[in-house]
């Protein structure tokens, strides 16, 4: 058993794909036509970190309730945790790509951490190993 996918509500597919693939370095695993439960066209879009089993379904908001949830999937709490081996390199790359970090990196018992916000307002932890 493993966790396969988590839904991330976004306002539009293509900018979301660009952020995940071009900025975060995820892979576009699937992008195929699909239909809503009531038959309207949509896309089935899945992105994953390289070599990861768990990924995101990028779901375009459908209706006012989902639009209201964009950027607030966890009510302002850090929603997603991206663990990397080379914290300094990834932090520098993301900063250079325009990712906004809320504060300077800091060390916690569980690793080096810096909180950033995705284009929709969801907070993320960038996590790396604790420096020696």
TrEMBL record:
Domain of life: Bacteria
Keywords on record: Dioxygenase, Lyase, Oxidoreductase
GO molecular function, one term: lyase activity
Pfam families the UniProt entry points to: Glyoxalase
Domain VOC: 2-129
Family matches, as InterPro entries: Glyas_Bleomycin-R_OHBP_Dase, Glyas_Fos-R_dOase_dom, VOC_core
Entry-linked PANTHER family: GLYOXALASE/BLEOMYCIN RESISTANCE PROTEIN/DIOXYGENASE (PTHR36437), GLYOXALASE_BLEOMYCIN RESISTANCE PROTEIN_DIOXYGENASE (PTHR36437:SF2)
Protein name (Swiss-Prot/TrEMBL): Catechol 2,3-dioxygenase-like lactoylglutathione lyase family enzyme
Taxonomic source organism: Actinocorallia herbida
